[in-house]
Design goal:
mainly beta; globular; 1 helix
């Protein structure tokens, strides 16, 4: 009997993401950044997103950036690969 993994335990936490988190990713054709909402971790290791038009996308981890809010409220986008599986700016 094959057991389907729960959506909570799909590998998002180990790369520092949560379901429903807003991220941005680089487009393939024009290289512009677009925002998406995290849905799941795909079998190939990419992240399943829903884009602004409601389409499902599978984006490699290397092309995803997360929003970080600094201690004074300023926002910046950092590549997910640079955060080392989770980033907490408040500790620094």
């Amino acid at each position: 009997m094959s057991r389907k993994p729960s959506p909570i335990d799909d590998g998002l936490a180990e790369i520092g993401l949560e379901i429903g988190q807003i991220v941005r990713y680089a487009g393939t054709s024009d290289k512009r950044y677009r925002e998406g909402v995290v849905l799941r971790r795909e079998r190939d290791g990419s992240v399943g997103l829903r884009d602004d038009r409601g389409r499902a996308r599978a984006i490699p981890v290397e092309r995803i950036e997360i929003r970080v809010v600094g201690p004074r409220g300023g926002e910046q986008w950092l590549p997910l690969t640079d955060t080392g599986g989770g980033f907490q700016l408040g500790l620094f």
